[in-house]
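User: Here's a chain of 132 residues. Predict its fold as tokens.
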Amino acid sequence: MPSTSFDYAVVRVVPRVDRGERINAGVILHCRERRFLAARIAFDRARAAALDPALDLDEVERALAIIPRVAAGDPDAGPVARLDQAERFHWLVAPRSTIVQPSSVHSGICEDPDAALQRLMSTMVLTPSTIP
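Assistant: Prediction complete.
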């Protein structure tokens, strides 16, 4: 299969927005040419709690859990999930000043978008405590 370009953003948890400390918790990857949009999440509750012991970890997990569903176009994930793939990606990576934030969008080249997503998860997000 020939190589193709993709765009991605890292999903970050910022327990205290005023402090700016963050934990990488997932990746959203969009490959328009292959009609691929997916997100994977791996939240390290212990790391987040270390940055802010008062953080509602269950609420953060609920917010993170919706991201892969919106990326997949799950109709039960709300009206944004019913947008076309490019619109969903742009909505997911739009800048926010909330506890769950996307990074800037970056680009890459791959032969297999799913393998690229897994590679990004391995290098950008997973730690020994989050590896399934």
